[in-house]
Structures are given as C-alpha cells and as structure tokens.
Design a protein that fits this description.
Largest sheet: 2 strands, antiparallel
Order of helices and strands: EEHHH
Structural class: mainly alpha
Shape: globular
Mean pLDDT: 87
Strand content: 5-15%
Radius of gyration: 13 Å
Distance between the termini: 30 Å
Amino acid sequence: MENTLLYCRVAPDGTLVHIGEKFSKLLQYNPFVSDKTFSQIVTPIEKERRNIDQLISKIKEVVGKEN
C-alpha cells in the first residue's frame, strides 16, 4: 500500500505526521530533511497555501467540536 497510494496524515496545525512514499516522491519531499507544513509542500502559491491552511483549520474546529 505504501507504494500504491497517494496519502499523508496532517496534524491540526498543518504539519505532516506521515507521508506515503509515492506522494513524497511526486512532491519531491524528503520528510527527514524538511519541516514544512502540508500547504508549503503542495503549492508554492501563497494564496493557495492560505486556502489550504484555512481548510485544515476548519477541519480542526469541526473535529474539536465532536470530541
């Protein structure tokens, strides 16, 4: 599964908890060398980064209300 799916686990603050090997290669991301957030890895465009960060923040709020 590690080499067939594009997946990653993102913490509520946007940092990566785990990224699949194939996704890592596609994005040219080395988790051992970088401390970037998910949005920084996915796009270099600041407006898109803000949108992704806002989405992660909204998900954090919804999950927090359920617990």
